[in-house]
UniProtKB/TrEMBL annotation:
HAMAP family: LeuB_type1 (MF_01033). Mg(2+) binds at D221, D245, D249. It is an enzyme of class 1 (oxidoreductase). One of its GO terms (molecular function) is 3-isopropylmalate dehydrogenase activity. Its main location: cytoplasm. Residues 4-346 form the Isopropylmalate dehydrogenase-like domain. The lineage of its organism: Bacteria, Pseudomonadati, Bacteroidota, Chitinophagia, Chitinophagales. This is 3-isopropylmalate dehydrogenase.
Length: 359
């Protein structure tokens, strides 16, 4: 298979972790006889520094001409601490999501036996935890009208959702649930928000088309608690943009580290794959960041290409590193391996398993 992959390393630890994914994809290509052509593009603070624009047109073009996008991370503290900045790195990612209509962000929450001791939760609570968050990604308060009144004393962020925006991700979430344990939980704040009541109405209506899927509804404040108290109850969690952002960071605690979680953003055009973590500026350039969130995002990219066996080989290699204690500093502050070393180990494992079982 011959595929074009747009690579956007981004800011902070983005380039370091993305390099490991490219290394892993190269090992996959070599072992399974594929060709992946990478086209590098800039976005975020690095793009502002180079061009003044967090999302240059050339980057959008590169994405549109590719079969998938691998993205690292975005954000730089020099903007976080300057509320008056008119151009911000995050605008690049938000605009790319909007332009490419990447309306569904899929965030699987897996747990690993080898890491259970890392979680602040008791092992018993982590048993049978296996759920997926479907986060709406191109609507809601992130994209509503924004305003700071001239005298600086009042600010506005509007939250808007249309039936169409809710329907398209809800359909995907139901279809996904049908392939899993057939349970869908809508997380909202329908006791307070009008947009949440519209979400409930749309989900209720569409549920008639998926009679094999059981649906429940949970207020987001309760969901935040249930994710900690009884995470095994969830299968597919469907929610709007900002609630999904918040509960997915919370849910990463179940896995053992935020650095482990991958995601896929899909829509009507080319799909984008990115770890859910941020740019972790304190670690940038130190070769200590966890590359597994990015590497597992590359596995989701392979799934998206229909390369299930290849994706499985990547996941098996990742599990092998975890089982053998080849982990980064976020997982083991005492005995740890560098970003590069973990990337090498995963790639080598894929390479060495040439003739052994996969799948
Ligand atoms: C994420 C990130 C982004 C978001 C930021 C960087 C804009 O936190 O992908 O979860 O809030 O969506
Ligand atoms: Mn986030």
């Amino acid at each position: 298979m011959n595929k074009k992959i747009a690579v956007i390393p981004g800011d902070g630890i983005g380039p370091e972790v993305t390099n490991q994914s490219v290394k892993v994809l190269d090992a996959v290509a070599k072992r399974f006889g594929h060709q992946f052509d990478y086209r590098y593009a800039v976005m975020g603070a690095v793009a502002i520094d180079q061009t003044g624009n967090p999302l240059p047109d050339a980057t959008v073009d590169t994405c549109l001409q590719s079969d998938a996008i691998l993205f690292g991370a975005i954000g730089d503290p020099k903007y976080d601490n300057n509320p008056a900045a008119s151009v911000r790195p995050e605008q690049g990612l938000l605009k790319l999501r909007k332009v490419l209509q990447l309306f569904a962000n899929i965030r699987p929450i897996d747990t690993y036996k080898a890491l259970q001791h890392m979680s602040p939760l008791k092992a018993k609570q982590l048993e049978n935890v296996d759920f997926v968050i479907f986060r709406e990604l191109t609507g809601g308060i992130y994209f509503g009208k924004k305003e700071l009144q001239a005298d600086g004393t009042v600010a506005v962020d509007e939250c808007t959702y249309s039936v169409e925006e809710i329907e398209r991700i809800t359909k995907l979430a139901f279809e996904y649930a049908q392939k899993r344990r057939k349970k869908l939980t809508l997380v909202d704040k329908a006791n307070v928000l009008e947009t949440s009541r519209l979400w409930r109405k749309v989900v209720q209506q569409l549920s008639a088309n998926y009679p094999d899927v059981s649906v429940d509804y949970m207020f987001v404040d309760n969901a935040a608690m249930q994710i900690i108290l009884n995470p095994a109850q969830f299968d597919v969690v469907l929610t709007e943009n900002m609630f999904g952002d918040i509960i997915s960071d919370e849910a990463s605690v179940l896995s053992g580290s935020l650095g482990l979680l991958p995601s896929a953003s899909i829509g009507n055009t080319v799909a984008l794959f990115e770890p859910i973590h941020g740019s972790y500026p304190q670690a940038a350039g130190k070769d200590i960041a966890n590359p597994l969130g990015s590497i597992l995002s590359a596995a989701m990219l392979l799934d998206h290409f229909g390369l299930q066996q290849e994706a499985m080989a990547v996941r098996k290699a990742v599990e092998w590193t975890l089982l053998n204690g080849f982990v980064s500093k976020d997982i083991d502050p005492v005995n740890n391996y560098s970003t590069t070393a973990i990337g090498d180990l995963v790639a080598d494992h894929i390479d060495r398993n040439k003739d052994s079982d996969v799948g």
